[in-house]
From TrEMBL:
Its main location: membrane. The keyword rRNA-binding does not apply. This is Permease. InterPro entries: ABC3_permease_C, MacB_PCD, Macrolide_Exporter_MacB.
């Protein structure tokens, strides 16, 4: 096998330019597949990671939805939470809101801007200023770069702004253009709870359950109890939220789109395969003398077929390796412009090499078989 591979490399090296042009289609096709899969995998990883922030491990989320537009401020009460805590398998219950931000109006001198704001997160990457956890009574505020541009032309740090009549000091500026959603501003948890939390209806309940408890059973029992005892049962309906299922469905759809686009890119590999077949036909025609001599010295039809088939496969694998290297370079460039990081996975590499090998086998077989079936007498007569 090693000897046949060396012969194939030597043969490919004799016609570098022609073989490189033949490999060009494979190189472009494989590089395209690598880039498409990397972007798809990177996007899926980013989105599922974001969904993972709503970790549902050992947690059941119950939601309330108003049946009328006139009752949108309803939800769960402390009495509802007490009922849910009595369900066997539930450790504790927390009332939350599906709305991620409160509304407010910001004023700086004569400028007025309507914004959405929330309590500060644990981590926040700033482009200006230093991030730290503010105490509950702090009047500091972190604002987005877009809001800073609307209010101030420059030097937004340490400026005083009014938010719904309360004065805040700008502590830092962050970018809100990434994949993770960001409101226009963040304030301390204490201030948010004191001034803005009343805007958010408690339309969700997070039930933290015991590790061995059945999420399905607890969810069904919780809905049943709320339909019977919930204080807002007449103005809304209760259901179990299942972010895990949403995440799985989203990933499934995204993978389908990625594979479809990769399939389209694979068409270039089909065209490249036709080019490989063509060049192998030319190679077989050019080397009929060599085939005749080898057959005269005892080489079997199988030896001849395998030799040209290996040459076809080696040609495609070399193209595939160059395509993978080109794909790495393109993904590095693409990452400079994407709001998320494209990721080249191991399976993308394996898939690319498998496709390259398959192209060599499929499109190299017919020319190789033709060479194997050449009659010795005919070959010698040509000489």
């Amino acid at each position: 096998m090693t000897e046949k591979i060396l012969i194939a490399l030597k043969s490919i090296g004799k016609n570098k330019n022609r073989n490189f042009l033949t490999m060009l289609g494979i190189i472009i096709g494989i590089a395209s597949v690598i880039c498409i899969l990397a972007i798809g995998d990177g996007f899926a990883h980013t989105v599922t990671k974001g969904m993972g922030d709503h970790n549902t491990h050992n947690k059941v989320i119950l939601q309330w939805e108003a049946t009328s537009d006139y009752n949108t401020d309803g939800g769960f009460t402390s009495n509802d939470a007490a009922v849910l805590e009595k369900i066997p398998g539930v450790n504790r219950v927390k009332l939350t809101s599906s709305i991620v931000e409160a509304g407010a109006k910001v004023q700086y001198k004569t400028k007025h801007v309507s914004i959405g704001l929330n309590k500060q997160p644990k981590h926040l990457k700033l482009i200006k200023g230093n991030y730290f956890t503010m105490d509950n009574a702090s009047n500091g505020i972190y604002i987005s770069h877009d809001l800073a541009q609307k209010l101030f032309k420059k030097n937004a740090l340490n400026r005083l702004i009014s938010v719904d009549g309360t004065i805040f000091v700008v502590q830092g500026i962050y970018s809100a253009n990434g994949m993770t959603y960001r409101p226009d501003a963040y304030v301390s948890k204490g201030i948010f709870k004191q001034l803005f939390a009343s805007q958010l209806s408690r339309d969700e309940v997070k039930m933290y359950i015991q590790p061995d408890a059945s999420k399905k059973r607890i969810g069904k029992e919780a809905v049943k109890k709320m339909k019977k005892m919930g204080e807002q049962k007449d103005t809304g309906r209760y259901s179990v939220s299942n972010p895990d299922q949403i995440s799985k469905q989203f990933t499934k759809i995204l993978n389908g789109i990625t594979y479809f686009i990769a399939f389209i890119a694979g068409i270039s590999l089909l065209i490249a395969g036709i080019g490989v077949m063509n060049v192998m036909y030319i190679t077989v025609s050019e080397r009929r003398k060599e085939i005749g001599i080898r057959r005269a010295f005892g080489a079997t039809a199988s030896d001849i077929r395998n030799q040209f088939l290996i040459e076809s496969v080696v040609l495609c694998i070399i193209g595939g390796l160059i395509g993978i290297a080109l794909g790495y370079g393109l993904v590095a460039v693409i990452n400079a412009f994407l709001p998320f990081k494209a990721v080249i996975t191991t399976y993308a590499i394996i898939l690319s090499l498998s496709v390259s090998t398959a192209v060599g086998l499929v499109f190299g077989f017919i020319p190789s078989n033709k060479a194997a079936k050449s009659e010795l007498v005919g070959l010698l007569k040509e000489e």
